[in-house]
Write a structure and sequence with these properties.
By secondary structure, the chain is α+β, with helices and mostly antiparallel strands. The chain has a single domain, classed as Porin (Beta Barrel). The chain contains six helices and 16 strands.
Length: about 425
């Protein structure tokens, strides 16, 4: 009996225990359900936060991570290869045409004319960083009918009718000592050692800086030496930022390159650097020249005074010259004054040459006026001297002288003459260069 009572009691308690256990199991089940539902969400949220942190860290490490990837570069198409003719006549090549028509008449009514068609070709040979060489050739096909001794055609007396004339024909090699120098030394000698060979203006006076190929007014050299251009070779360049130099050996033959016993001429010229012309309008130099040249006219002039036998046309020549030019702007245009002086000897006689020139160019660059006085005196023979006036009308007149088009009226009055009567010569010239 006591055993059955205990069971019942236990059974009653068991019912209570079971109820409590069921409640606990329900709570545990709910908890497990909540864990099963929310744990993955929490884990995903946690992982998302970590990924965001990693992405932020990556963004700090690579600022270009958000840029789109560039497409792979494509190969540059090959350029069509050029023939040597195309390269020669298209790269750094300049070609200019020239037309000149000139009529002149003296006070006795003697009329002469000179008509010409010409060209100038300039070719430069360069690398990507430097110019190595240049070649220049300038020539004309000329027709002369009769001859008057105008200042821009002193060599024309011996060329009646048709003639082909060459003027510039030279080669320049730049910085010729570079193969012997280090890179540092090359940088310090740029423009100092250049070589010229061929035919160009005599390196005496202002002609080296002045192209008188097309003008009627000329400088002193033609009268001083019998020619304004000669064949020569030598060096030119800059001594320092203030002074340029030219050192040459000249054949002394004038127009044609020939040797008939003459020893040739040595010439040195020191001149102001180009910056003085650009900044101050000033040019100038000191020139020295000596040796032997061919000059039939000089020998002919000396024959009455006795010329040594066997000299033929050879003339022992010595010259020292000083020259200057100054450009100054004035309220209505540009004023330029020029002077050249030289002294020395031909054979055994002293001589002295001088030239003064003034030019005015209107600010429009459409018209200008010029005047010149020139005199060449030789011991025992007297002097040749002229006063010249000129009026010019320009259709085109660029500063670089690469495009020129004008009409000029020039009147020369000879006030002294070694031989023959004094003359007055009027010249009308049309000129086109482009």
């Amino acid at each position: 009996m006591s055993a059955a009572r205990n069971w019942q009691v236990i059974g009653g308690k068991e019912v209570v225990v079971r109820s409590q256990i069921l409640k606990q199991l329900l709570a545990v089940s709910v908890a497990l359900l909540m864990i099963a539902v929310f744990a993955p969400l929490a884990l995903a949220a946690s992982l998302g936060e970590e990924q965001m942190q990693e992405a932020a860290a990556g963004a700090e490490a690579d600022p270009f991570a958000d840029l789109a990837e560039l497409p792979a570069p494509q190969a540059t198409p090959e350029q069509d290869s050029r023939s040597w003719r195309e390269t020669l006549f298209t790269e750094n090549f300049g070609f200019r045409k020239e037309i000149m028509s000139q009529f002149d008449m003296n006070e006795r009514g003697k009329t002469a004319s000179r008509q010409s068609v010409g060209f100038e070709a300039l070719k430069k040979f360069s690398t990507a960083t430097a110019t190595l060489a240049s070649v220049d050739f300038q020539g004309r096909l000329v027709r002369r009918d009769v001859f008057n001794p105008v200042s821009n055609d002193m060599e024309g007396q011996g060329r009646p009718g048709w003639a082909f004339e060459y003027h510039n024909a030279y080669l320049d090699l730049y910085n010729v000592l570079n193969p012997l120098l280090s890179d540092e030394q090359r940088g310090g000698t740029v423009g100092r050692f250049n070589l010229r060979a061929g035919r160009f203006y005599v390196p005496f006076g202002l002609n080296l800086q002045t192209d008188t190929h097309g003008t009627v007014l000329q400088l002193s050299n033609d009268r001083n030496f019998g020619f304004e251009r000669d064949w020569y070779t030598g060096f030119w360049g800059a001594i320092n930022p203030d002074v340029n130099y030219d050192v040459y050996y000249l054949a002394g033959s004038g127009y044609d390159l020939k040797f008939k016993g003459q020893s040739g001429l040595g010439a040195i010229r020191l001149s102001l650097a180009n910056k003085y012309s650009y900044e101050y309008g000033l040019e100038g130099g000191l020139s020295m020249l000596g040796g032997e040249r061919l000059s039939p006219d000089a020998v002919k002039r000396r024959q009455p005074l006795g010329v040594e036998a066997g000299t033929e046309n050879r003339v022992e020549t010595k010259r020292v010259g000083l020259d200057g030019r100054y450009r100054q702007t004035v309220p209505t245009g540009l004023l330029t004054v020029t002077s050249e002086f030289s002294g020395g000897r031909d054979l055994s006689s002293n001589l002295f040459a001088q030239l003064y020139q003034a030019e005015y160019l209107h600010a429009s660059r459409q018209w200008g006026v010029s005047t010149q006085y020139r005199r060449f005196q030789q011991e025992g023979l007297g002097a040749d001297a002229s006063i010249i006036g000129e009026v010019s009308w320009y259709f085109r007149n660029d500063i670089g002288n690469s495009n020129l088009h004008w009409i000029k009226l020039n009147v020369e009055r000879q006030v002294e003459q070694m031989q023959g009567p004094h003359s007055t010569i009027a010249t009308l010239q049309y000129y086109f260069y482009q």
